[in-house]
Write a structure and sequence with these properties.
Length: 346
């Protein structure tokens, strides 16, 4: 009995040991299965906002066209891209210098590059700023103009090259008045030499006003009397939209001829258009790198000069403000600004 009992006890111990080992293997297998189970997929990171996370500063320069552009762009960017825009006061030299050294403000919508060439070139070389697009669709900002009623009566008169043949017919054989700019302005000398270069000396009565106010008064009086008159002016400017003036084609720009026209002793005056101006939408370099959708917006924002002339004319209306004209543009001229936004807005 004792030996049989001993064998039974040994058998029972063996079975218990086997069951314990099997339990350990089962637990181990379950643990391995738990470790190998795939983790739930992570949520994708949301795309960064088009304007980034810091305010976008836009320089509002101290002349009307630049003020209007700053306010217009601030409104469109806030409306279409959700930008936190900040319009900040500025002037040409100080704003150019700040952008070239600190990258702020981020945007200058009307930067006259040739007026601050040294500052601008230094900023370009330091890779702190660069142009996004021409501010205006046209670069020829100075020229000779005629009233719309004169252009309607003489459709053959489209450029300065037509004047020698057309002028004797415009005023009953009498000389036609040409209203130039004030005598102490550089354009007065250029206009005198250009009249000589075009062979118009005996056909026009040259008028050089004392100042800008007299210049505008003479032009307005001539138009009110429906005179056959020609005059010098520049853009963008409200006067050109208010009185329906049309530019004469000045022909091609000739650098050598233009240099001679600007000298008092120009002995061999030859025709040339006025030199083009470089006026650009300037962006800090970080805008291109950090918020490319906004850089792309500004690369499409060139505005026709005629449209800015109309905006400036609205600004001259009684009670008008820069902010009010900007609101009016955004509300009523989506046909113009919608292509600036294109498909880049969220």
């Amino acid at each position: 009995m004792t030996a049989r009992l001993l064998r039974a006890m040994l058998l029972l111990a063996t079975l218990l040991a086997a069951e314990s080992a099997f339990g350990q293997i089962t637990v181990l297998d379950q643990a391995q299965d738990s470790v190998a189970a795939p983790a739930p997929a992570a949520e994708p990171e949301p795309p960064p906002p088009p304007c980034g996370t810091r305010p976008l500063s836009i320089a509002r320069m101290s002349w009307p066209s630049a003020e209007l552009l700053a306010e217009i762009h601030a409104r469109i960017l806030a409306r279409e891209y959700g930008c936190d825009t900040r319009v900040t006061p500025g002037d040409l030299a100080a704003t150019g210098s700040s952008m070239a050294s600190t990258g702020q403000p981020a945007v200058a919508p009307e930067m006259w590059v040739t007026r601050i060439a040294g500052v601008w070139n230094a900023g370009i070389e330091a890779q702190m700023l660069r142009p996004a697009a021409p501010t205006y669709a046209e670069s020829q900002l100075e020229g000779w103009f005629m009233p719309g009623y004169l252009a309607l009566a003489h459709p053959e008169l489209t450029g300065v090259g037509d004047l020698a043949g057309a002028l004797p017919l415009l005023n009953g054989g009498m000389r036609v008045r040409f209203i130039s700019c004030p005598v102490d302005w550089a354009c007065a000398l250029i206009n005198r030499n250009l009249i000589t270069a075009l062979g118009l000396g005996g056909m026009v009565e040259l008028v050089e006003p004392a100042n800008r106010f007299e210049m505008d008064t003479l032009i307005a009086e001539a138009v009110s009397r429906k005179e056959s008159v020609l005059f010098y002016y520049w853009q963008p400017n409200a006067v050109l939209a208010q009185f329906d003036f049309l530019p004469l084609d000045m022909g091609a720009y000739d650098e050598d001829a233009a240099k001679c026209l600007a000298r008092r002793d120009c002995r061999a005056a030859a025709p040339s258009a006025f030199a083009a101006e470089t006026v650009v939408v300037a962006l800090a370099e970080w805008v291109f790198a950090d918020i490319p959708a906004i850089a792309a917006y500004f690369q499409r924002t060139s505005l026709p000069l005629r449209e800015m002339n109309l905006l400036l004319a609205q600004l001259n209306e009684p009670g008008a403000t820069v902010e009010g004209v900007a609101d009016r543009f955004v509300a009523g001229r989506e046909d113009l600004w919608r292509p600036w936004v294109a498909a880049t807005a969220p």
